[in-house]
Amino acid sequence: MFAEDELRPLSALQHLLYCERQCALIHQEQAWVENRFTAEGRILHQKADSGSSEQRGDLRIARSLALRSYRLGLIGRADVVELHRVHPEAVTPETVNPEAVNPTVLAAAPSTPASSTPGAKLPGLAGRWFPRPVEYKRGRPKAEAWDEVQLCAQALCLEEMLEVEVPAGALFYGQRRRRTPVVFDEALRALTEETASRLHRLLGSSQVPAPVFGAKCRGCSLQSICLPKAPRRSAKAYLQELTE
Question: What domains lie within the chain, and their CATH numbers?
Fold first, then answer.
């Protein structure tokens, strides 16, 4: 279990998987430069970051919900967490399908024993509820699992905070204007926990990895700070040049 002052930003997981140097520059050096892509992402998040909530029947929507996990050492916010009211009498093994269109069925997928009471009891809300995180991203789905890991980390935080299993969530991509369902299977959970451990090692080292130029650099807002194409010289070589 991590202490309060050891918690790392949940959003850094995505930065780490994208580029270790970018992650260190942002979260150790506090470096940030906005470009078109980051501006589009910021605008897309404006409603989600409002912190407002609303209720539609058996669905309650919480925005910019504070999250933390002392087990993984993470802290941050979820863009949206949908809370689906549980109707235990309607939940049977045959209806447990994490890709179902019906959000109530999707939320009812945890592998809890049949004798246990499903869902979480929440302060100020009657009944029991299943949480389902929804993360907003600009662009479109990626071949890599960067976004899925960030979303899964939110689910692991919710599981620790509410003591209820969160089986699935969704990513909303701005270019497609629709959701992509994400199932938090064992492989994704293991990758998420491994990435959280890597994050603590990187940020705990107080070192910024050397740049490695690649295709990802073209879309990175930190090019002017990172200088991935600049020649690298050691301090020893630099001092030697001055004395020659």
Answer: 4-208 (3.90.320)
